[in-house]
Amino acid sequence: QVQLVETGGGLVQVGGSLRVSCAGSGSSFSAYDMGWFRQVPGKEREFVAAVSWSGSDTYYDDSVKGRFTISRDSAKNTVSMQMNSLKPGDTAFYYCAASRLWGFNEGYGRCSQYPYWGQGTRVPVAS
Q1: What 8-state DSSP symbol labels residue 106?
Q2: Cα separation of 97 and 118, whole Å?
Q3: Rounded-to-integer distance, Cα 32 and Cα 30, Å
Q4: What is the pLDDT of residues 79-120, one digit of tens each?
Q5: Distance from CA of residue 36 to its chain's centroid?
Q6: What is the pLDDT of residue 56?
Q7: Cβ 124 vs Cβ 14: under 8 Å
Q8: What share of the chain has pLDDT > 70, as a percent?
Q9: Alpha carbon of residue 121 to chain centroid
C-alpha cells in the first residue's frame, strides 16, 4: 500500500501560480502511476493530470493543457503539479492518487483506475 499527503494549496489570485505536491510513503512508491484530480463540492471528481511510474508519459485534461505541468521526483517520493495562469474555474479541492493497476495508458483519466487517494488540498482562485 501507499499513503499520500498533498500540500501546497492556498488562496491565489487569477492569473497567478501555485505548486501542489504529493508525498508518498510506503513500499515501492516509484512503481506507482500517479494522477491529480480535482473536485468542487456537489460535483463529480474530475481528472486533471497524470504521470506514468517512469515519468515518460504525461497526460492532461484539455482544460489545463499548457497551463499545468505534472512531474515526479522518485528519489524524494513526490509528485508535483505546477499550476500557472490560474482561473476561477480552477477553484477546487485537488487530490493526488496512485495506481499499480493494469491499463493506465487507457484509464488514467478515470477515478476507478486509482485505488489510493490523498486527503486533498484546497485551491481557491480569487477573481
Answers
A1: H
A2: 6
A3: 6
A4: 999 999 999 999 999 999 999 998 999 999 999 999 999 999
A5: 2
A6: 94
A7: no
A8: 99
A9: 10
